[in-house]
């Protein structure tokens, strides 16, 4: 991922059969598809640098402090909503809603429209995957079409009525075109929501299945940042990515020709026994947990890596502190995707079931 002999890949430079090239050419030009240019993840320098710089510049220390306060506020609100209930489903009720609210805040999307980010993110996730079926592909493309129109209008509004959102700063201070800004909004939406939701869900399940690790966090809350790194390592939200060889290369005894695609298994690298002792064990005190590659490496390192870490440390800590008796209430259900690993449902019991003492009627006089 740091080797300059390799670069990003996208459908336009992949060697695929003619029928697939025909289909790709007719799937809606201009859609903010997360796997098509000008999406950052499929671009190489110098275009990648030009597109990424305005976004990274907008994440100032002041902006990050504001986002941290917002994460605390939103987490508290979501937990307040759960408080009256004895049971919940923590993907739909918490793990999805927290990052959606934060991404909406970053993009300047009004709270009334934040549910649209959730819908577009869920429908678009299979487009990152391998072997998406026809119906899933159609839903994803339709969702991206709606997102394209919405984000296009958002860019127009932010140009005429600037606001203080991070994306608003990108719109007003950069020279990116409307199409490039629309694609940037799309990648911020997808990358900022999907992977964070998966991380939060995996963290909940891992800690509930390893109560001894959770007990250490309760005894020493300073361990939460490292716990998030270990969650990211052992259950990478993104399991794989691809690179394209720019030249003929020999690597680990294998010859690769220029133009060939290499699949990089991030989840496998994060369990490499040459890098991590007992790699399949979940250990929140692991000294080198942060050496994972869950966020990628090099110029394509995830834009929201720092934000995701903050959301994980704050959101998970607040959840387990608010509900100390949190327990699984059934088997969590995985999403069934190969690239984006996470849970679709996590049914839980928030608090012990309180039973009322049996009512005893007074003895009647005979």
Automatic annotation (TrEMBL):
InterPro entries: Cyt_P450 (IPR001128), Cyt_P450_B (IPR002397), Cyt_P450_CS (IPR017972), Cyt_P450_sf (IPR036396). Keywords: Heme, Iron, Metal-binding, Monooxygenase, Oxidoreductase. PROSITE patterns: CYTOCHROME_P450. CDD domains: CYP164-like. Gene3D superfamilies: Cytochrome P450 (1.10.630.10). Coiled coil: none annotated. Its cofactor is heme. Belongs to the cytochrome P450 family. This is Cytochrome P450.
């Amino acid at each position: 991922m740091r080797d300059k002999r390799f670069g990003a890949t996208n459908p336009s430079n992949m060697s695929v059969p003619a029928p697939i090239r025909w289909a790709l050419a007719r799937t809606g030009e201009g859609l903010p598809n997360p796997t098509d240019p000008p999406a950052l993840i499929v671009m190489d320098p110098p275009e990648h640098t030009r597109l990424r710089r305005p976004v990274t510049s907008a994440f100032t220390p002041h902006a990050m402090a504001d986002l941290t306060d917002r994460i605390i506020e939103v987490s508290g609100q979501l937990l307040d909503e759960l408080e009256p209930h004895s049971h919940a489903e923590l993907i739909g009720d918490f793990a999805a809603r927290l990052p959606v609210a934060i991404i909406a805040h970053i993009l300047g999307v009004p709270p009334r429209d934040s549910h649209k980010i959730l819908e577009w993110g869920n429908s678009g996730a299979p487009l990152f995957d391998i072997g998406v079926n026809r119906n899933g592909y159609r839903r994803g493309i339709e969702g991206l079409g709606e997102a394209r129109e919405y984000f296009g209008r958002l860019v127009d509004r932010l140009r005429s009525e600037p606001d203080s959102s991070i994306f608003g700063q990108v719109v007003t201070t950069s020279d990116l075109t409307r199409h490039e800004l629309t694609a940037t909004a799309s990648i911020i939406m997808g990358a900022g929501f999907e992977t964070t939701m998966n991380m939060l869900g995996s963290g909940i399940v891992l800690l509930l299945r390893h109560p001894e690790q959770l007990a250490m966090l309760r005894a020493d809350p300073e361990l939460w940042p490292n716990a998030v790194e270990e969650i990211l390592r052992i259950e990478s939200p993104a399991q794989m990515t691809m690179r394209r060889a720019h030249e003929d290369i020999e690597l680990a005894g294998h010859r690769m020709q220029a133009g060939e695609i290499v699949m990089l298994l991030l989840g496998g690298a994060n369990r490499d026994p040459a890098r991590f002792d007992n790699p399949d064990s979940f250990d929140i005190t692991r000294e080198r947990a942060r050496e994972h590659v869950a966020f990628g490496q090099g110029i394509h390192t995830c834009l929201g890596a720092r934000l995701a870490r903050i959301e994980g440390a704050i959101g998970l800590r607040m959840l387990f502190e608010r509900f100390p008796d949190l327990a699984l209430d059934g088997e969590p259900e995985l999403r069934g995707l190969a690239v984006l690993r996470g849970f679709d449902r996590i049914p839980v019991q928030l608090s012990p079931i309180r039973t009322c003492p049996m009512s005893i009627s007074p003895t009647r006089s005979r």
